[in-house]
Specification:
The chain starts with a helix and ends in a 5-residue tail after the last helix. It contains eleven helices and no strands. It has about 210 residues and is mainly alpha-helical. The mean pLDDT is about 95. The chain is globular.
Length: about 210
């Protein structure tokens, strides 16, 4: 939404006490905005420290969630909640690197339970696997927009992810069946116009 010059001028003419009341009313209604302002104005931790703390949080949460792998509906609910916390972290800190690294970290942590996952019926586990594949694809799309200085660290994470995917027969086949080339898990091999390639894959009814 764009604001007119008149509207901006009217806001600037508000008395300080009126501005304060207006700001606090807005903050009460917008949790993300409130946390973002806190982070930018007075938080003693920077984005890197917040990201490190999120990794520990994700590890603990996934470890707890893994107890419920046999109950796939509940397990997916728990994983989506963790994913939502990552999204909140990114919105609050504008941590573009963390948007990729934390989501890949989440997937790697989930696949730490490959043994348990492999014992589930494919029909039960299908939605989770498709969810993870889409998360990987989204991360690859975002990587191409990041500074190349991050690529080496992310390649290490992707290499670990590749090993875990290919050690899970069902998940590996689902990647292939949805048109995802494992070469793309090396950043330099992510093709140009990758977004158009993924769009075409989706237009053919895959990744859904």
């Amino acid at each position: 939404m764009e604001y007119s010059k008149e509207f901006k001028a009217a806001l600037s003419e508000l008395k300080p006490i009126e501005k304060d009341r207006l700001i606090f009313r807005l903050l009460k209604k917008d949790k993300i905005l409130s946390k973002k302002l806190y982070f930018e104005l007075i938080d003693t931790e920077n984005a890197d420290q917040k990201r490190d703390a999120m990794e520990e949080h994700i590890k603990e949460k996934v470890e707890f969630a893994s107890k419920y792998i046999s109950n796939q509906k509940y397990f997916v609910v728990l994983i989506r909640k963790i994913s939502a916390e990552i999204t909140e972290h990114v919105k609050v800190t504008t941590d573009k690197f963390g948007d990729v690294s934390l989501n890949l970290f989440l997937i790697n942590q989930i696949l730490e339970s490959n043994d348990k996952l492999s014992r589930q019926r494919f029909n039960d586990i299908y939605k989770l696997y498709l969810y993870l594949i889409n998360k990987v694809v989204k991360s690859l799309l975002l990587i191409k927009k990041l500074d190349e200085d991050y690529w080496m660290e992310l390649d290490e994470i992707l290499n670990e992810l590749h090993d875990k995917i290919t050690s899970n027969v069902y998940l590996e086949k689902l990647f292939i069946n949805n048109g995802i080339d494992f070469n793309w898990l090396t950043i330099e091999k992510i093709p140009d116009h990758f977004d158009l390639i993924i769009k075409d894959i989706k237009n053919h009814g895959f990744l859904k």
